[in-house]
Amino acid sequence: MNRSSVSRRQFLGASGAALVTGLAGCSAGEGGTSTDTASSTDTLKIGVLEDQSGNFALVGDPKAKASMLAIEEINANGGIDGKQIETFQRDPQSDNQRYQELTRTAINEENVDALWAGYSSATREAIRPIIDRNEQLYFYTTQYEGGVCDEFTFAVGPTARQQLGIVLPYLVEEFGPDIYTIAADYNFGQLSADWVKVLANENDANVLGEEFIPLSESSFGSTINRIQEADPDFVMSMLVGANHTSFYEQKASAGLDVPIGTSTAMAQGYEHRRLDAPAMANIYAGVNYMEEVPTDSNTGDGGFVDRYFEMYPDAPYLNEEAETNYFSTYMYKKAVEQAGTTEQPEVIEALESGIELGTEEAPEAPEGETIKLDGATHHVDHHMWIMRADEEHNIEAVENRQIPETFLSETAGCNLPENPEQTQYTPVDYYEEAE
Amino acid sequence: MVNGINLALQFLDSFAFIVLAAAGLAIIFGIMGVINLAHGEFILIGAYTATLAVTQLGLPLVVAMLVGGLVTGLFGILTERVIISGAWPNYISQRTLGRDVIEPLYDRLADSMVATFGLSLILTQGARIRFGNSIDQIATPFGAISYGEFSYSSYRIVLAGVSIGLLLVTYYLFTRTDFGMRARATIQDKETAQAMGVNTDRMYMLTFGFGSALAGLTGALFAPVISMQPTLGDQFLVEAFVAVVVGGPSVVLGTALSGGVLGAILATFSNLYGTFIGRIALLVAALIALRFLPNGITGFIEQLRKRRQESD
């Protein structure tokens, strides 16, 4: 199916909307998706705040692009319930202060009907109070440590329990029970490391040691020596951001050849493409999506990958979070159509009824078959994959299955339709071994 | 358990990182009185040039690294002519407006900070626009050495050797050559140097170019081990400034000494207590040094020497 910007314009021309596009165009989206028609009731507005510069630009830029792809596709197919989507798109530059300012602008001045914003957990926590105060429907799309039970937030990326939950048991079985954890030193890394402990306990493995590394650090000599001293069967790595990427090159050149399980490498910053082989050899990523995920709706003819690179021929990689931005835009579309309105309380209610993708009227999610939003927790029962890089950095899918979110629903008892709250639960509250 | 070889290798690693990060900055700041906040981006230029020379042009790594240093040196000269001394804009404005438009930034610390900060923003964003959020990285050469349960990247040891070599070259250049003598004369007393027939304008330009080339070479040397992205210069900036300030006014000796002292502190603490504590220890050491040695290590040595001379 051809959905280039040319065909979009042809579509708009055919529907007569092109006449006013130029006049009313006020969107900052680089895809130029402003398709405002004369009356404001014929449009709805989506806010997209994703990092296109700063420390998270590498992983944030594909998110913005994938949002614009979904919006363009939806607009070209008649919009949401006949309404064309306008965008409020800005680059917060990986700066949490700027995120807060832009979030206020999006809500108070732009009156967005739904907001997609933020790569890091630190960013999410910086803007969540603003979102809750304004009762703003908000999609957080990064894979993350888990535990956010918030009536206005839909954390649709996979959680640590889902990501680590598929890769850690596999590595214990393949290589042995001794684990060494290295993680970025902020809330995501700390909580993910707690999850490694919880999962190690559940799988009769043990954590020999752990180290938390500041985001600004790019020298890993002493870390590598400490791993060698502990001599684990495998390493769990939750390193984050451009500086931490240096670890993989450095461990390869230092001759550290222990297998590494990760929830952060490759699927987000495509290290297997950027770094010379064999830096990423024997790295196992537990992810819901990578560009290489071999589903028909992803790598098949005219699939997600084809459509993305048709719209962005120069884009380097289609990453995990981009897919989440993409399918969650469709989830939102489905919810608005089900609610019959863009009024946020009604849309949230529709989302909570358990929106599914991959059914007859909604597209398949590229990560695999049907995926379902869990209304009680606002999380997604993802289709998870273990993707392994070999010596030449070829990627193979080792294992895949659907893994529901269980921490919030089963352990913490989060049920937002019945008990609206704005809490982040942490594993330490429920598991002794996480302390 | 502390392993002596680990500690020694990490000391060499930290020493090399600090010395290489600081070398170019020390010359531009210590000799010329210009605070170059674009130092990290000069390192970026060297790193990107070397990497692209290998991946796009297929040059051998060593040649690519020299090209990285050379290109950055030329860029430094351009920067000096246009922004720092304003010689070229002034040349044009003299002929069109009949007056200078740029007041040279030498010994105007705060002003040079603002100007070079602006330059650093332009360079970072320029690299992002031109090359995207990252470029493909080259692999680290030379493999690893093993000892017992440990192994270590041989290339990091080579870096330590290169850093010492660079210090020696710089020392030789500024103390034993005609160029070095003229450069130092220019910096100490511009008018007298001019009266003695030194082309001070040219000295400023070449010294700035040499400092820039060192920064570029640093970037090129570290290109195989750090992540290639537009903000990579940030990783060097803190260590570079701390080393220069702790080192004090004598460029070569100061950089070597502060590389030694700070490298030892960084290596010991990160080896014993982890990377995070290592970083904290480095900054605490800098705080203490500034409190008790306001003129840096070499300033303190100079003070001792003067006192001894007076008492003699």
TrEMBL record, chain A:
Signal peptide: none annotated. Transmembrane segments: none annotated. Residues 412-435 are annotated as: Disordered. Gene3D superfamilies: 3.40.50.2300. The keyword Signal applies. Residues 43-391 form the Leucine-binding protein domain. It comes from the Archaea. Keywords: Signal. This is Urea ABC transporter substrate-binding protein.
TrEMBL record, chain B:
InterPro entries: ABC_transp_permease, ABC_UrtB_arc, BCAA_transport_permease. GO terms for cellular component: plasma membrane. It is a multi-pass membrane protein. This is ABC transporter permease. Keywords: Amino-acid transport, Cell membrane, Membrane, Transmembrane, Transmembrane helix, Transport. Belongs to the binding-protein-dependent transport system permease family. LivHM subfamily. The chain crosses the membrane at residues 12-37, 57-78, 155-174, 203-225, 237-270, 276-301. GO terms for biological process: amino acid transport. CDD domains: TM_PBP1_LivH_like. GO terms for molecular function: transmembrane transporter activity. Pfam families: BPD_transp_2 (PF02653). The gene is urtB. It is found in: Cell membrane.
